[in-house]
Design goal:
The chain is 0% helix and 60% strand. By secondary structure, it is mainly β. Among the domains are: 14-112, Immunoglobulins (Immunoglobulin-like), CATH 2.60.40.10; 151-279, Lipocalin, CATH 2.40.128. The chain has a five-stranded mixed β-sheet, with no helix packed on it. The chain is globular. The N and C termini lie far apart (67 Å).
């Protein structure tokens, strides 16, 4: 019995982190000095050093090493130069692997990121039936033309982190993407039949770009144009307004044949449909209302309606009627909302379900809320109005030479 040998490797690697220390403070664009020792009874085949947020999602590229040693002293610099790293708590982690086992070790730190600053307002305008103008309004409210796009307009979104502007066409092109620093196109997708390719407001941006198509599809794209989401819609339905909500993608499916309309819920990871609920309205906007709630702003018989939808229970609840057709809406602080109609602008409060007319006779097509400086930007036909919040008193008005199609707030990160 004494001559028997057990070749099974049951010992996991041992990791000791000496730097950074627990709770150490760092500032972007510092580098984090990571040091420690790794030991094992077998050779450590690989090491990973990374930085994750409190949900254990990587926020910078992982660094890899291959020690091939039973004892290894780690000394490395972990750069945190990205402007997109938010202020908050993070974990530096080391992962060590031998032939059969692995060990993860975490050290909590705090990072102060680069303050988020509004750089400019990106304005898209109607030049003529075949041209879209793109301009910027700087911090001094000067209007600076950037470039023109050939084609008709359906929707647009901006990606401050990757410095991009996404534009969709109605019939002349699918998607064109421009770098707003270089003003050059980075990628595009050509139009494909049947036409039109898109209806108005077909985009939704939440880290990835999601686009609804007038014929049978909803796609999602990374910043470089590679596809991350794909689902097919039946031919009798027109997918229009969409929204990424937690692990789901929601879509307003309007009937093309006079039948029922629905809000459909898809799994964002697979594109498979989870469920749908029948509706009697057309969605103007979806808003994340916290927890499991989505606020739905829509129109029914040329008047506005406000509903609440729970994607987990597939249940909707009626909240409020709004006089006049709704054109746009925006979520403010404290779960309050501005709703723009063909007659006025209203303030809707979810706590008390009250609707107050705050800008009588003001008609706007686009509303944006800027939380850093607590400003509201409202676009009319060819003017942008700036209001403070929560007072909602006008501070400035900027005249644009052409008709405004859309506007976006563009940040330094």
């Amino acid at each position: 019995m004494s001559s028997c040998k057990n070749d099974t490797d049951n010992q996991i690697p041992v990791i000791e982190i000496t730097s950074p220390f627990e709770g150490q403070e760092f500032f972007v664009p510092d580098s984090i000095h990571v040091s420690g020792s790794i030991s094992d009874d077998n050779n450590v085949k690989s090491l990973q050093v990374g930085l994750v947020n409190t949900q254990f999602v990587s926020v910078i590229p992982i660094l890899y090493m291959f020690p091939e040693s039973t004892n290894y002293e780690l000394e490395i610099e972990l750069p945190i130069a990205g402007n997109d790293i938010e202020t908050g708590n993070y974990y530096v982690y080391i992962r060590a692997e031998d032939e059969n086992n692995f060990k993860n070790k975490y050290q909590s730190i705090h990072i102060t990121g680069v303050p988020k600053v509004l750089e400019k307002i990106i304005v898209l305008t109607y030049k003529d039936a075949t041209k879209i103008g793109v301009s910027a309004v700087d911090a001094d409210n000067n209007v600076v033309p950037l470039f023109e796009v050939t084609g008709d307009y359906a929707s647009s979104e901006t990606d401050s982190k990757n410095r991009l502007l996404y534009i969709s066409g109605n019939s002349t092109f699918d998607i064109q993407t421009y770098n707003l620093d270089t003003k050059e196109m980075t990628w595009q997708r050509a139009a494909f039949p049947p036409l039109p390719v898109h209806e108005n407001n077909c985009f939704y941006f939440d880290e990835h770009l999601y686009a609804s198509y007038a014929s049978y599809y909803i796609y999602g794209f990374r910043y470089n144009g590679s596809m991350v989401f794909n689902t097919t819609i039946e031919e009798s339905k027109l997918p229009s307004r969409i929204m990424k909500f937690q692990d789901f993608l929601l879509a307003d499916l309007q009937s093309k044949t006079g039948g029922f309309s629905y809000i459909a819920t898809y799994y964002a990871s697979t594109g498979a449909e989870k469920q749908r609920v029948q509706t009697t309205y057309k969605v103007v906007d979806f808003h994340d209302a916290g927890e499991n709630k989505v606020l739905v702003i829509g129109n029914e018989n040329n008047d506005g309606v406000v509903w609440q939808f729970d994607p987990y229970l597939n249940k909707q609840s009626f909240l409020k009627n709004v006089a006049g057709k709704i054109l746009c809406s925006v979520k403010l602080a404290n779960d309050d909302y501005l709703i723009g109609t063909i007659n006025s602008v209203f303030l809707f409060t979810t706590n008390f379900l009250t609707l107050e007319e705050i800008l009588p006779g003001t008609v706007v097509n686009v509303l944006r809320y800027e939380p850093v400086n607590q400003k509201i930007y409202a676009a009319g036909v060819n003017q942008i109005f700036i209001y403070n919040y929560p007072e909602i008193k006008i501070q400035n008005a900027i005249t644009i030479s052409d008709g405004i199609l859309n506007m976006h707030l563009f940040y330094n990160r």
